[in-house]
Amino acid sequence: MVEITVTVNGAPQKAGVEPRTLLVEFLREQLRLTGTHVGCDTSQCGACTVHINGRSVKACTTLAVQADGQNVTTIEGVAAKDGTLHPMQAAFKEYHGLQCGFCTPGMVMSALALVERNRAATLTEDVIRAELEGNLCRCTGYQGIVRSVAAGAKAMGATVGKVE
């Protein structure tokens, strides 16, 4: 076992993990943060997307020991403490960016990182689609997701171009 100290959603966590434990397993099984989903175990679907120090990563191919000393944010840490949805979460709800909901946490986490990376640029439909390429949805056909990301980005103060 390896002792790690990780700040998850603002709360310090100390735990013993096997060196081969994936971050997604640590979050789901040890911390019971089940919003981070396991979809493929190969980094293809994006359902496990979390942020480490503000950077979007896929937790199914990141070892828990790699998060030692880092700040991890999961979907559970995005909403306000009083339960008020983050503008991106609210946009997914309002613009029908989800259907079954399995991919939604990873989509929201990827969308938040997308907005942060592109603060100086105008977000267009093409940019949003290209940036979400590593996240798969098997239900929606993506148009609602693209509209949701555009609306959430705009609510976060980003410049958004025309989105159909």
Which structural traits does this protein have?
single chain; 164 residues; alpha/beta; Ubiquitin-like (UB roll); five-stranded mixed sheet; 5 helices; 7 strands; globular
In words, what does this structure look like?
The chain is of the alpha/beta class and 164 residues long. The chain has 2 domains: 2-75, Ubiquitin-like (UB roll); 87-160, [2Fe-2S]-binding domain (DNA polymerase, domain 1, Orthogonal Bundle), CATH 1.10.150. Helices cover 30% and strands 18% of the residues. The protein has helices at 23-30, 87-94, 104-117, 125-131, 143-155, and strands at residues 2-8, 11-17, 49-52, 55-58, 71-73, 122-123, 159-160. A 5-stranded mixed β-sheet has the order 2-1-5-3-4, with helices on both faces. The protein has a two-stranded parallel ribbon with strand order 6-7. β3 and β4 form a beta hairpin. The longest helix has 14 residues, at 104-117. The radius of gyration is 16 Å and the shape is globular. The mean pLDDT is 94.
Provide a count of the helices.
5
Topology order in helix (H) and strand (E) letters: EEHEEEHHEHHE
CATH classification, class level of the largest domain:
Alpha Beta
Gross morphology: globular
By secondary-structure content and strand pairing, the structural class works out as alpha/beta
Quantity of strands, as a count: 7
What oligomeric state best describes the polypeptide chains here? single chain
User: What is the makeup of the main sheet?
Assistant: 5 strands, mixed
The H-level CATH homologous superfamily of the largest domain, spelled out, is: Beta-grasp domain
**Over all CA atoms, what is the radius of gyration?**
16 Å
- The average pLDDT is 94
